[in-house]
What does this fold into?
Amino acid sequence: MTNQREKMRLSSDMKPRIALSAKDYESLLLLARAAASRMPDLTSILADELERADVLADSEPGHFVCMGGVVEFRDDMTGKVQTVTLVYPGDADISQGRISVLTPIGTALIGLGVGDSITWETRIGELRQLTVLKIREPELV
It folds into this structure.
């Protein structure tokens, strides 16, 4: 896993631009710090994503994948299309389509825009590519 992750880090200049609201950025930074000792690999990847993110003072709902947002994406290797909600670890429930930002695919999705593609590494070390097809902003409760 380390060799592929290093290759992915080295190619980070090839990754698409990502954007986060200031609120999501701050929350995710705290999450990465808090989980660093328990999940060092995933929090390291999340920290890398946070480093390269454009942090927006005012979020532009619907323009990028944000926490609580609903995203439809295609696995470019299989063609399978999925719709998920990106959530914090305590709210994750894969059977309800709520995936944690502290999963490889959750970390890959955060901050992407419609049409963006990114290569990410699965928990078993496979490289995959996904493309964002649609984004819906979080629903206010």
Notes: Residues 13 and 94 are 31 Å apart (CA to CA). The two ends are 39 Å apart (CA to CA). DSSP finds four helices and seven strands in the chain. The helical segments are 2-10, 22-35, 40-52, 104-109.
